[in-house]
Design brief:
This protein is of the alpha+beta class. The protein has six helices and 17 strands.
Amino acid sequence: MNALFTILFLCSSLFLYSQERIINLVPNPSFEELRNLPLKRTRRPVYRYEPTSGYIPFRSNLNFWFKGTQSTPDLRITSPALYQDCSRKFDDCDKARTGQKMVGLMTWLKNRYMDDYREYLQVRLKKPLEPNKKAYISIWVSKEQEAKLVSNNLGVNFSMTKIFKDTEGPFNIKPQLNCDSLINGHEKKWVELKWEFIPDKPFEYVTIGNFYGNENTDTMIFANCPASPYKPKYAYYLLDDVKIWQEVDTAGVYVFEERIIEKEKPFELQNILFEFNQAILDTVSFVELKKLIVFLRKHPELNLEIHGHTDNKGNDDYNLKLSRERAAAVYQYLIEKEIAAERLKYQGFGEEKPISKIDEENRRVEFFIK
């Protein structure tokens, strides 16, 4: 208990918050959402009792998250059955804090190719942080079973754009947030690292890892590690349940498909497309519109306005007519899927409201929840 208290004291600012005012800005925060299923078994499993874990599933199957350098974190997948098999032999098997998935991250490794190998985990937030408003960060962390070392320097860096460094070494930049004390120094268990800070810019990307070289990183041998004596020494942590939020007035704020949308503010759906110069929906549009239907059924108190827009090519009257007909096509599709007509309105604006110098971006359908 003392070790846990020390980590929380050194790595966090203790804060109070109201659950009703939290919207997690991190997509897929527990790493449960995958793509390209079914998962493939690795030819040579690196992790005992985890036949589908590794860096390839991270790159090929994990939604929203990506790496920050040439080195790749691992998607770790444990089921209750696999965990039970491991538990027959070991007392401290790796298990996700929630669900069945987590991410593994090297924070210290010296190998024959380089002295300070590092791995970084990166994600784009659902919406940029609001400058000058306090932000809260929570990450659950546990030492991996076979890691012979524990380390400090698990940090969080916020940036305006996606960052990538063509190396397998450290970024060597100072993150806004960092845990300076050893994590799991005396006991392997899930601990919560918490910070709060006030962003000075509308940061949209988050990178997690050890941003420092070996000379500025503390390590310690973990007692009674079950790893083979032939296995190299490294510090490797499992991460789960990543949460980043700012206190907001949640009235009129909704989460739609890992995005935050607000009443009276426009939002677009991906791939709402039409046949050339016509108001006939392309079949690819139905994927996103079905998600919108699910959202509208979940929130029967909401109404929806559909606005059609075109570029400025061609006749003004024709563009106005085409934009209205395209908005009407979406309106009609929603009615056919049993969304009540009294909840829906549509309107066409032609070329009146451009948002870009690029024609393709001006040809769009916008939605407003009311």
